[in-house]
UniProtKB/TrEMBL annotation:
Source organism of this protein record: Erysipelothrix rhusiopathiae ATCC 19414
Name used for this protein in its record: Uncharacterized protein
Highest taxon in the source lineage: Bacteria
Length: 59
């Protein structure tokens, strides 16, 4: 029972993620590189780039 619920949650979150990704892809078709990445990957990339920028500025 518990495992089945977990699986359903994972599948459900994957489904919504896929829909969000589709919406994002339709909004940014002129930026194919961004639409290839998932929202998590984009967030990580943005965090990394801002971290690098702050590090460069502090140095």
């Amino acid at each position: 029972m518990h495992m089945k619920t977990q699986l359903r949650n994972i599948l459900g979150s994957y489904g919504t993620k896929k829909n969000k990704r589709k919406d994002y892809f339709e909004k940014s078709q002129n930026k194919p590189m961004l639409s290839e990445m998932s929202s998590e990957e984009q967030a990580i990339g943005q965090a990394l780039s801002s971290f690098v920028i702050t590090t460069i500025i502090t140095l």
